[in-house]
Write a structure and sequence with these properties.
Blueprint: E1 2-9, H1 14-26, E2 31-38, H2 47-56, E3 63-67, H3 69-78, E4 85-88, H4 95-105, E5 110-114, H5 117-125, E6 133-135, H6 151-156, E7 164-168, H7 178-191, E8 195-199, H8 206-216, E9 221-223, H9 224-228, E10 243-246, H10 255-262, E11 267-270, H11 273-278, E12 286-288, H12 293-304, H13 307-324, H14 327-342, H15 356-360
Parallel strand pairs: 1-2, 1-3, 3-4, 4-5, 5-6, 7-8, 7-10, 8-9, 10-11, 11-12
Amino acid sequence: MVRILHLLDRDAEFEAERGAESIGRAVGEGFGVTRRTIGHGGDWRDPATAAAMLRRSTETFDVIHAWGGRALTVAALGGTGKSPIVFSPASDTRLRTTQWLRAVMSYRRVEVVCPTSTVHRKLVERGVPLERCHLIRPGVEFSRVKRRRDPALREQLGLSEHDHVLLAVGESTRAAAHRDAAWAASILHVADPKYKMLVWGRGPSVTSVAHFGRNVMPDALRIAQRRLGPRVEFEELLPAADTIVVTARASVATLPIAIAMAAALPIVATVTPTVAELLEDRHTALMTAPGKPRLFAQRVLDLIGDSSAQWTLADMARTEAYEYFSFTRFVNQVRSVYRQAVDSDRVEVQQPAPGAGMRFHGRT
């Protein structure tokens, strides 16, 4: 039995939280997973307490999986030197975290699991050894993705069947720039009141987005968690949406975008390195430059006005979601990293070859 400890913040981002939960549930026989959270309301109130409690613990673990920078600190200071560390960096990993990672790697075995090529390239360029840095894209649980339109859900959200609902992808963070989405939606709403904006309600910037929405588009912005409760999952909102909007200005978590792709809804997005890994203009989405709400609103109108493009882009997005974000592939790759780290082998993550259709479109 391989004993694994998952360490993550009490308020970890959605991608880390879902990844840890999924692995703990699906990793399979031969692995035992223990989960500990850090922060107010978690198992340990802060990193210092967490490190002290981990050192004093009578439990032993073969692998410590640290989700985020604070968890890495706890793993480095609290774990025994014999336990290898698997580190999953957050989408917005900063230089300070990378410097600390390199310091820890100088005296502990750390295998880094990156969710995107952008994060992988950034870490390697900053000095993280290539042989210790691996790409494992997140996995979408397609059984959770409901594609059928849900009038009852729309009614709960205060939306009518005649409204055209723009769903902002994922959590409201500074990088996600959901204020830009609200701004673009307000431009459309002034032209036609049927345009409404739906935001999940998780993330540090949700209050700012709500305040901005009240000022620019009163009664047209919906915060899902404030209407449906804090337990509503992102996948549950997809049947209420007509168009997905991705207004990112910087590196964001890719799992919510992959989930939106799997729902086969038309997508309008900005061009950033992270988003461009998943979406391609006129192939899986219509795209425009970040930070320009007026142009973004026009792009939404362009897509709405072309029903053929809506179907074609949504269908290809769903196809690529199945190709690149298999849940089984995600779990198997992480399990392989655990096993190789415990056996002190060099970690090698096998990347599945994309299908012929993906190669034809230049998606490698």
